[in-house]
């Protein structure tokens, strides 16, 4: 999982590839339609027509689907939760807060966050494994406020699910040499619980193919780190070693770039090395 800056990279951003960049007028029109749809949903909800409300959400699923190329561009074509490109499966536009119903760890389902069904800040790109297993699961911390349309307070909620658009959440999830997703060192209890529940629910470790690909990235990174350190030790007496340091450093940093698959794994491999010279590669 890496941080996705959803707030500061709108579809109109000049830095985006031309193929996914939107004209401001088109983006304004998309926002206007979203607002219109929410008003229609609110009328149906006020009338107690929940089934019709949910049908309207489904009817306009293509509206959020239009943003898929932009959302994919933000992560270099990767799932926001696993960092896998999943070339053999479809990366979906997933709603972080479920749109029609939400479920805690225990107990009955509660109403969903239907007013966020067309809110782009609620969209995430998710691969088949995490999306299928997440479903409507969205438990909150015991005692947390729970947002409703009448009394919105999403910013005050304390969800268990880690959010790739939250820079702090991303720091809580680490990886080990076996490719397992694990809590980062030194977490408080609630943070630890959040990581464990997220990993379990989204199958971030249980899905063996993911763990295996992460393990390969860790091994590749570890070998390069060893090569880099050995070359550093010879720099003062060997011009060839200096060139090897530059080349190897370039290879290592390429593994940690946001667009690289499983880049967070490479970064944690470097962090766990506890070598100051290596930490500078990801500073």
- Output the radius of gyration: 22 Å
Question: Which regions contain 5 or more consecutive residues with pLDDT less than 50?
Answer: none
Terminal-residue CA separation = 18 Å
Order of helices and strands: HHHHEEEEHHEEHHHHH
The 3D shape can be described as elongated
What's the tally of helices?
Answer: 11
Number of strands: 6
Strand order within the widest beta sheet: 1-4
The assigned structural class equals: mainly alpha
The mean pLDDT is 94
Percent of residues in beta strands?
Answer: 5-15%
Percent of residues in helical segments?
40-55%
Largest sheet properties: 2 strands, antiparallel
Topology:
Blueprint: H1 24-46, H2 50-59, H3 61-65, H4 68-74, E1 92-95, E2 101-102, E3 110-111, E4 123-126, H5 128-134, H6 167-172, E5 173-175, E6 181-183, H7 189-202, H8 208-232, H9 239-256, H10 263-271, H11 276-279
Antiparallel strand pairs: 1-4, 2-3, 5-6
What does this molecule look like?
This protein has eleven helices and six strands. It has a two-stranded antiparallel ribbon. By secondary structure, it is mainly α. The longest helix has 25 residues. It is elongated. The mean pLDDT is 94.
């Amino acid at each position: 999982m890496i941080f996705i800056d959803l707030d500061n990279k709108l579809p109109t951003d000049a830095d985006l590839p031309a193929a996914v960049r939107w004209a401001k007028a088109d983006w304004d029109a998309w926002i206007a339609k979203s607002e219109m749809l929410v008003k229609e949903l609110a009328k149906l909800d006020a009338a107690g027509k929940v089934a019709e409300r949910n049908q309207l959400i489904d009817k306009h699923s293509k509206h959020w689907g239009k943003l898929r190329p932009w959302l994919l561009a933000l992560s270099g074509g990767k799932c926001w939760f696993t960092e896998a490109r999943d070339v053999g499966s479809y990366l979906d536009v997933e709603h972080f807060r479920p749109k029609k119903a939400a479920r805690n760890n225990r107990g009955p389902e509660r109403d969903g966050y239907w007013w966020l069904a067309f809110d782009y800040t609620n969209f995430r790109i998710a691969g088949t494994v995490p999306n299928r297993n997440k479903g409507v699961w969205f438990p909150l911390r015991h005692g947390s406020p729970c947002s409703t349309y009448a009394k919105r307070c999403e910013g005050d909620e304390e969800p268990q699910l880690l959010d790739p658009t939250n820079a702090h959440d991303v720091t809580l999830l680490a990886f080990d040499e076996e490719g397992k997703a694990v809590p980062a060192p030194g977490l408080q209890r609630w943070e630890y619980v959040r990581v464990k529940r997220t990993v379990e629910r989204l199958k971030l470790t249980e899905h063996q193919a993911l763990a295996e690909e992460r393990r390969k990235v860790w091994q590749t990174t570890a070998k390069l780190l060893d090569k880099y350190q050995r070359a550093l030790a010879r720099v003062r007496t060997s011009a060839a070693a200096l060139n090897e340091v530059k080349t190897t450093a370039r290879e290592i940093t390429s593994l940690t770039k946001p667009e690289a698959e499983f880049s967070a794994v490479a970064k944690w491999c470097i962090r766990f090395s506890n070598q100051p010279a290596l930490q500078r590669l990801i500073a």
